[in-house]
Amino acid sequence: MFGIPLKLQSVETNAVIDTAAEVPIISDMDYHTLPESPRIIKKLRLNTADRDMSMSGFVCGPLTIKIGESEFEENVYVAPIQDDMLLGLDFMRKYKMLVNIPEEHVSMGTLSIPMLKQPMHEEIASVTVCRTTVIPPSTFKNVECGINKDLTAFVVEQCGGGNVAILPTLYSHENKSKVCVINMTVEPC
């Protein structure tokens, strides 16, 4: 992920350059660390890219966003996100931000800011099958499973080889996890 350094109400933080986010979003934890919390304008639900996943949040503002020497007064969305801030597409369009990925910088008028490469936040959890399931040869079954951590969203994917294949699948914590397991052999497993 690429991000840029900025200040929210004089608090230094980093914002992920996120063209998939329609609006600027700050994490609820960062909102509570601001010296003066901006007023809440309205409560709402934010839809995510996943078809059946949304999260509670609110719009607050105005909030001072300082990028380099330029300051912007904007209403922002607040939600329980992992990153400190997502700099949404509407902010980038409004201020004519150009994202130059090969040269790893963003430009806004005469302002040029080097982008920060941010590693993806990754957490590993154990997945266990809820009950024994026999999968006939050369077929697949959706197998109910559980995880050992409370995660808001997670991807189940195969770790290592074996006689089965597990398709990577994204889940929200509200869904019962069923993993698609394919028996790649000519024997039941």
Descriptors:
50% strand; mainly beta; six-stranded mixed β-barrel; Cathepsin D, subunit A, domain 1; elongated; 2 domains; 189 residues; 2 helices; four-stranded antiparallel beta sheet
Task: Provide an overview of this structure.
- The protein is mainly beta and 189 residues long.
- 5% of the residues lie in helices and 50% in strands.
- The chain has helices spanning 28-31, 89-94; strands at residues 2-8, 11-17, 25-27, 40-47, 54-67, 70-79, 85-87, 98-100, 105-108, 111-114, 116-117, 127-129, 140-147, 153-156, 164-166, 169-172, 177-183.
- The protein has a 6-stranded mixed barrel with strand order 1-2-7-3-6-5. A 4-stranded antiparallel beta sheet has the order 12-13-17-15, with no helix packed on it. The chain has a 3-stranded antiparallel beta sheet with strand order 8-9-10, with no helix packed on it.
- The mean pLDDT is 85.
The CATH topology label of the largest domain is Cathepsin D, subunit A, domain 1
Report strand %.
over 45%
Strand neighbour order, sheet with most strands? 1-2-7-3-6-5
Which stretches are low in confidence, meaning pLDDT under 50 for 5 or more residues running? none
> How many structural units, i.e. domains?
2
Tally of separate helices: 2
Radius of gyration of CA atoms, rounded to a whole number: 21 Å
Secondary-structure element pattern, one letter each: EEEHEEEEHEEEEEEEEEE
Name the CATH class of the largest domain: Mainly Beta
The chain-level structural class is mainly beta
Helix content: under 10%
Major beta-sheet overview: 6 strands, mixed, barrel
What is the rounded distance between the termini? 39 Å
CATH architecture of the largest domain: Beta Barrel
Q: Any idea what the CATH superfamily of the largest domain is called?
A: Acid Proteases
Q: pLDDT average, as an integer?
A: 85
Protein name: Aspartic peptidase DDI1-type domain-containing protein
